[in-house]
């Protein structure tokens, strides 16, 4: 008589690979015993990444301070990281999210509520934030997408506008220049404001 197959305890990272949905995320995330992480999913596959360093954290906060007033004056609402649903088996968590209008007690944000995801890019998320996520957001019809890249002594900001199903550059600047956009509202600043050393 053959020995019974060993039974392994349920592990959501293994047993749910390729099956992740928003409903499963609500049930199993965050994963007990794991360090704090950003959880995102693409086509049912969970992607985890550690929180970024102080330079990105500083830039996120400074950019939020810069954008909040103009966004509210235009009737929009700026939030820190939110879960943005990108289909039945996916979601992203941008560093900042500009919504069309303020929400109340909402855990999962629908793509049609989003005006512009804002990603502070780092080496660990470079490909995902510059290539994968913009493609996902474009498929969802999100009208704008913003990248911010922080270097040792410089910062770069790029805003993209959806046109013909893909993003085209609307405004860009590096530290020492003026980043100026006219839509979705008027806003201008020098990206040098995002640097810790400034």
From TrEMBL:
InterPro entries: Nuclease_put_TT1808, Restrct_endonuc-II-like, Uma2. It holds the Pfam family Uma2. GO terms for molecular function: endonuclease activity. Gene3D superfamilies: tt1808, chain A. Keywords: Endonuclease, Hydrolase, Nuclease. Residues 28-186 form the Putative restriction endonuclease domain. The keyword Hydrolase applies. CDD domains: DUF820-like (cd06260). This is Uma2 family endonuclease. It comes from Kribbella solani.
């Amino acid at each position: 008589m053959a020995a019974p197959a060993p039974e392994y305890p349920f592990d959501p990272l293994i047993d749910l690979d390729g099956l992740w949905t928003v409903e499963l995320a609500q049930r199993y995330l965050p994963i007990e015993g794991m360090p704090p992480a950003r959880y995102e999913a693409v086509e049912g596959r969970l992607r985890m990444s550690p929180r970024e360093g102080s330079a990105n954290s500083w830039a996120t906060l400074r950019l939020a301070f810069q954008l909040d007033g103009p966004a509210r004056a235009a009737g929009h609402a700026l939030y820190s990281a939110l879960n943005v649903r990108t289909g039945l088996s996916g979601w992203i968590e941008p560093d900042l999210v500009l919504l069309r209008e303020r929400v109340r007690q909402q855990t999962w944000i629908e793509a049609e509520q989003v005006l512009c995801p804002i990603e502070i890019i780092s080496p660990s998320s470079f490909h995902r934030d510059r290539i994968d996520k913009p493609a996902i957001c474009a498929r969802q019809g999100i009208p704008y997408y913003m990248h911010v890249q922080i270097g040792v002594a410089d910062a770069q900001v790029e805003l993209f506008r959806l046109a013909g199903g893909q993003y085209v550059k609307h405004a860009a600047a590096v530290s020492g220049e003026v980043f100026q956009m006219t839509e979705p509202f008027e806003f201008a600043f020098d990206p040098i404001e995002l640097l810790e050393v400034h």
